[in-house]
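Methods: holo model generation. Sequences were used as deposited, without trimming of termini or removal of tags, and paired with ligand SMILES retrieved from the corresponding compound records. Each pair was processed once, and we did not select among multiple samples. The sequence and 2-oxoglutaric acid SMILES for this entry were:
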Amino acid sequence: MKDLFLKNGYIKIDQLFDTKEVKELQNIYTKLLEDKERTAHLRSDLAGGNNNNSKTTERITQIMRPSSVEPILLQHDSYKKALQHAQELLGNDMELDFDMLINKAPHTNTPTPWHQDAAYWIDLPDKRAVSCWIALDNVYKENGCMWFLSVKNQQVLEHHNLPSGGALYCNTDTTNAIPIPLNIGGCTFHDGFTLHYSKGNSTDSQRRALILNFRPKKMIALERAQGMDHTGTRKKRS
Ligand SMILES: O=C(O)CCC(=O)C(=O)O
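and the model returned the structure below.
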C-alpha cells in the first residue's frame, strides 16, 4: 500500500470502516448538515456564488473542522484507524491537522474542479500531507466519486479561483484520470500534491464524504503559529 501510495499519489481501501462506525458517522454528519446555525462559521458552498444566502440550495456543502462542533468525532474509532494508516504511509509523526465534510446534494450536478489540496495551504518546509476521503454513501461517477491522476507532482501547479468564488481549480491534462467508485465505509488516501476532481451529483440522493487530513506534528504547530487552522476563508495560499 505504501509503495503504491508513493508511486501513484493515492490508494484505495475497499472497506476500512465497519457498519457500526459508518452508522455513527452518518448520524453525526446528518446532524451537522441540518444544523446551519452551529456550523455557520465553518460552512460554505464549494460551488461558489451563494455562500451568504441561506435560502439558496447549497450544491457542494463544505463544513470545515466538524470535530470542533462535535468533539466526539475526535475519539471515534474511524479517526484512530485513519491516523494509523496515515502514519504507516508517511511516518509516525503524522497527526490530524483538520477534518471536513463535503456533501453533494441530489441533482446539483456541480463538479469539484481539478486541483491539488496543497494550493489551499501555506508553504511548509516539510510537505508531507495525506487526506483520507471516507465514503458515507456508495459513490460512483454519477454522484461524484473521486477521480485521481497518478502523476506524482512535487510542486503546486498554477491554481485559479472560480469566477463565482468557491473551489480553486487548475488546468491540466486529465486524459489518464481514473475514477474510484467506493462502497460505504471504503476510502481513499491521497497526497497533498495529487490532482483530483469529482463530477457533479446527478442522482436522487446525497453524496456524503468525510475527509481527514494529516501532516507532521511540527508542521501543524508551524501552521497554527501563522494563524492557519483551516477554518478561515478558502483561498489560494501556495
Ligand atoms: O469530495 C469532493 O468532491 C472533493 C474532495 C476533495 O477535494 C478533497 O478531499 O480534497
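The chain has a mean pLDDT of 93.
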